[in-house]
Structures are given as structure tokens and as C-alpha cells.
Amino acid sequence: MSQATNQSWGGRFSEPTDAFVARFTASVTFDQRLARQDIQGSIAHATMLARVGVLTDDERDTIITGLTEIQGEIERGEFNWSVPLEDVHMNIEARLTDKIGITGKKLHTGRSRNDQVATDIRLFMRDEIDVIEVELKRLRKGMIELADREAETIMPGFTHLQTAQPVTFGHHLLAWQEMLARDHERLLDCRKRVNVMPLGAAALAGTTYPIDRHVSAELLGFDRPTENSLDAVSDRDFAIEFTSFASILLMHLSRMSEELVLWTSAQFNFIDLPDRFCTGSSIMPQKKNPDVPELVRGKTGRVYGHLMALLTLMKSQPLAYNKDNQEDKEPLFDTVDTVRDCLKAFADMVPAIEPKKASMYEAARRGFSTATDLADYLVRKGVAFRDAHEIVGQSVAYGLKTEKDLSEMSLDELKQFSATIEQDVFDVLTLEGSVAARNHIGGTAPNQVRAAAQRAREALAALKAGA
Ligand code: ARG
């Protein structure tokens, strides 16, 4: 490819672009990823131009045939991407003119690369959001079904990572699922603002041709054309919004990852992850490392980085289009890839989690996790809560000294601390009694977990049916 001044805008230039500057300002090495959307947008644009009489039907057909062939060349890896042609838009347009001659040069009538690139990214984002949503749904579904199966499995619940009260494993999984349900809403909300069409804004002020933006919007499946041409070419807040959705999602996945990593350790020993999600150590033969959750936890960092990059990219930019905006693509592409892969990893892994029920149960039994239940029992027998708290505190101190959990003490031992304690205390000191007693909406009782799983299932199905 020659180093001559770019043919698309070289008219007013008296010397060729510096070779380094040409490379420095080019984006084709990464924005060729938008080729499919660029061609899709161009076909709609040509169709609209013919509809309003700016192109003849023959010209439109020649352009569409040429673009369709170029699409094939790109898919087969035959397309020769040229850095001096700067970006995906001018590469495709130059190839079109190579193929069909002068008619190819008419495609750019009534548009600019500024509205073209803004349209391409939105089409790209919409496609990727739909792929990401499929993985997110698969993950939520797997989590809900696992929660339902584990509705009665008892484990310790933690505050400050200290044993607090018994909960069910199903309840814990449904807490994760709630986080993902909110992320899902954020994703769908973001999609609404992505699906608006900048095409027709041209460079910044609109165009003098009699274009019909509703026609192009409908052809491209956009909800509507953008309202303001200056905003249309400069706005990238939909990309920031997507990356902020992604950051919150990854923050949630990193929390789940952290718990999975802890739980697979010998010290917790709460779950097993199948070998296919783990790797070994080259030096320590006994090791089985939870690489997948560790890597998801680690990848959270790069997505936060992209959010900060995009926010900073847009900060203080005057209207309308500025070349700065070319920097939006790499952070966005990497965010899309990271989110899709992390969700896929989780959607595959979560249904395969194998809880070690006996070990979870034993951990819950050891940590005085039913101390609150004993206090509540005393309150029901007429003791004031603060006094009950004190009585239970003394019982726990005794348990620590004698290495006994509350449920392992005899009635006589318990009666030393309060005469109101009777045989029926053992109904509340068992782990099963403790979880069953939290029997209200949002509580950890097994029947509540099953009902919550059913509601979650229905909410997910309703999302599918809705828009
Ligand atoms: N490669 C550019 C971008 O990604 C396309 C728009 C360039 N427009 C311009 N007038 N230089 O933003």
C-alpha cells in the first residue's frame, strides 16, 4: 500500500502524511472488528438513499452486491487491511470503489465517518449485549436449580467471616442470584439507550440531502433515530454505562469467586469443584487449584480499569466529535470479551459445584451458631432480651471452657445459667430447628428457599417473554 496522502480526504493537503503519524492515527488494526456492523450500516444507508431518490435503484443494488462480496472476503480472511487507509470505514469504502468503480464513491453521500462509527459501535454493542444476556440467563438458571436442590443443606452463615448463624446453602446461592438479577436489569436498561441510531447526524450538523432517518432506523432495528446531531456523534455514555454494568457484575463475580476459593480450601472444606475447572501444581503433587474463580476475581481489575479509561476519555470533551473517541474501542472490546468469558466460565461451573454437606454441617455445629436462637427462646419465656443476651454469653463461655456446643450441653448444665430453660430448648438449639424458625419471606428456612427459588425461576422466565 502506498504512503501517499489518503485519497478520501487528501484534496486540500500539499504533502503526504508522515509515516509515523499515519500509523499513530490509524485504528484499523482494532476497529476491523466492526466490519460486519459497518457493512450492515452501509447497506441500510444505501437502501434509504435509494428510497428518497438520492441513489438510483441500480446504484443501490450495485453497492449492496459489492458490500456483500466484501463481507465474504473478510469472513474468508482474504481481505487486505491497509493501515494507510486508517480505519475500517475507509478500508471497506476503498475496496468497494475498487470493485464497482464510481458508484462506490456515492455511498458516502449524506453521511460522515462520525455518524458512521457511532452507529457501528451501537450495532456492535447491541449484538454483544444479546450474547452476554444468554450467558447471564444460563448462569442464573443454573444457580436457581442448585439452590433448590440444596434448600435443606445447612452451613454456617458468616458476619466478619466469623460463624454467625446457621443458614442453608440454597439460601446463600439465592443471595448470589439476587445480585445477578439486578445486574441483568442493568444490562437490559443499558440496551435501551444503546439501541438509538446516530446515522444521519453526518459530521455534526446533519445533512442537506432529503434523508429519511426513520427508514434507516427501521432497517437496522433501532428503536428510533437520535434527537440531536451534535450529541449523536459525540456521545459515548452508553459505552460507559455498559462498562459500569460490567464492573458491578465483575465485582459480584469476584465476591462469589472469593467464597468458592475459600470453600475449596482444606481449612473450609465446604465444596469440591470438578477437576475440569481446576489445575495442578508443577512442584506440589497434592495441589488442586481453583484457577477459574481465581482468574475471574483477577479479571475484575481490568474491567474497572476500562471504566476509568472511558470516563476519563470523555471528561471535558467539547462538542461534537473529537478524535479522542477513537480510543473508546479497545477498552470496550476487552470489556465485552472479559464479561462474556467470565459469565461462560461461571455458567459452566456453578451447576457442577459439589457441596460437602457433612463438613458444612459440622462447621455450623461448632461455632455456637445457635446462640441467638437460645436468646430468642429465653425472650419467649419472658426474659428481657438484654438479660437473655447475658445468659447466653455465659453459656458460650462455659462451652468454650468445656469444648461443648450449646446443643451438646445437658439440661442441667444449661439450667445453671437460667432456671427458665427446659427440655424444649433442644428444639431450637439444633441447626435444623434454627433454620426452620426463620420462616418468613427472605428468610433461610428450607421451605422459604424453595418458594424463593420458584419466584426467581418465574421472574427469569418473565424477562424472557418481555421486551
Ligand atoms: N476511526 C474513527 C473513530 O474511531 C472514525 C471517525 C473518524 N472521523 C474523523 N473525522 N476523523 O472514531
UniProtKB/TrEMBL annotation:
Occurrences of domain Fumarate lyase N-terminal (ranges): 11-305
Pfam families (UniProt xref): ASL_C2, Lyase_1
Catalysed reactions, as listed in the record: 2-(N(omega)-L-arginino)succinate = fumarate + L-arginine
Broad EC category: lyase
Gene3D superfamilies cross-referenced by the UniProt entry: Fumarase/aspartase (C-terminal domain), Fumarase/aspartase (Central domain), Fumarase/aspartase (N-terminal domain)
Keyword Nucleus among UniProt keywords: no
MF (Gene Ontology): argininosuccinate lyase activity
Pathway info: Amino-acid biosynthesis; L-arginine biosynthesis; L-arginine from L-ornithine and carbamoyl phosphate: step 3/3
Keywords: Amino-acid biosynthesis, Arginine biosynthesis, Cytoplasm, Lyase
NCBIfam families in the cross-refs: argH (TIGR00838)
Family listed: Belongs to the lyase 1 family. Argininosuccinate lyase subfamily. In the N-terminal section; belongs to the lyase 1 family. Argininosuccinate lyase subfamily.
Keyword presence, Cytoplasm: yes
Domain of life: Bacteria
PROSITE patterns named in the record: FUMARATE_LYASES (PS00163)
HAMAP family (UniProt xref): Arg_succ_lyase (MF_00006)
InterPro entries named among the record's database cross-references: Arg_succ_lyase_C (IPR029419), Argininosuccinate_lyase (IPR009049), Fumarase/histidase_N (IPR024083), Fumarate_lyase_CS (IPR020557), Fumarate_lyase_fam (IPR000362), Fumarate_lyase_N (IPR022761), L-Aspartase-like (IPR008948)
GO cellular component: cytosol
Domain Argininosuccinate lyase C-terminal: 368-436
GO annotation terms (biological process): L-arginine biosynthetic process via ornithine
EC number(s) reported in the record: 4.3.2.1
Subcellular location: Cytoplasm
Gene name of the record: argH
Name of this chain's protein: Argininosuccinate lyase
